[in-house]
Input
Amino acid sequence: MPDRAPQPVDRQLPTDEARDLISLVRDIAQREIAPRAAEEEDAGRFPREVFTLLSESGLLGLPYDSEYGGGDQPYEVYLQVLEELAMARLTVGLGVSVHTLASYALASYGAKEQQAEHLPAMLGGGLLGAYCLSEPASGSDAASLRTKAVRDGDHWVISGTKSWITHGGIADFYTVMARTGGEGPRGITAFLVPGDAEGLSAAVPEKKMGMKGSPTAQIHLDGVRVGDARRIGEEGLGFAIALSALDGGRLGIAACAVGLAQAALDEALAYATERRQFGKPIADFQGLRFMLADMATQIEAGRALYLAAARLRDAGRPFGRQAAMAKLHCTDTAMRVTTDAVQILGGYGYTADFPAERYMREAKVLQIVEGTNQIQRMVIARHLAGPETR
Output
């Protein structure tokens, strides 16, 4: 393995508190996450103890209100924390992003009583969340979901199957979108479902080409009963909540993609400066130097794009178009950069002795999750040219 230590990313952070926060995250990443990443990914092991440590360190609720255990941090800072975590291990960075996504509905749309009851445990009490929107027959067309919630007195009975659920089977709570009314987006409502609810079960996790340490599974809800106090927001508001959550979630994916790409660049650069051919380091050959320059430029552009979108969000301004752009650009960049990293390492890049091949396998899923990159292009085009003509 290359011995050349990567240089920390030079970050522009808004406060001394944010700088201290990034230092804490880097310390945890270097001590607790990166050293075991390859072994645990190969074994398909989810690092629950790392998430417990992150919760104890105040890192699972960064963008939320400190009144309920959050960190009161702007998205500009939270996303850079995700990038640092993903740089060490994508399973961890993406897991924190998904947990934040799962907490969003209650933190943003819940009643004060609901927030006071549930958020402290969700944000700082060691719990881990999952977000349940997709179904076997409704992925990109999420508004056609079929999971139903039927009112029974002061309870709801939820039945259906959710697919592609990160943390499926290990989550402590699930934010579930279910149909309570007619067809279309206005018939959907959000619910907070406990992970140990009777009638809730998980299928065997999917066998994936990458991120083997992050369980992805179908969730079956067979007559799961939850009280009306676990309904989040008004009836029929669930789809609007889901879309609002995904705008922020796409920025989380973008930040994770930049972190993964940065890790791949660091690996390629370390190898290229140490590997010698024809009497000199291969980094001296112009073909490789240009590859490294392009990789670094794409990463910097992606980082600037997701941070610009985050600053719009922090200022309370619309950011949906920029979030889609950031998700599109950053995940495409991660795919290109990780592929180039494998190429720079040559035959070694194709072996599991180096992490480059794992980075390339992991990058692919980022172009798919939380809206495929084809969907991102549709979102961007609608902002530019208006809805498609029917």
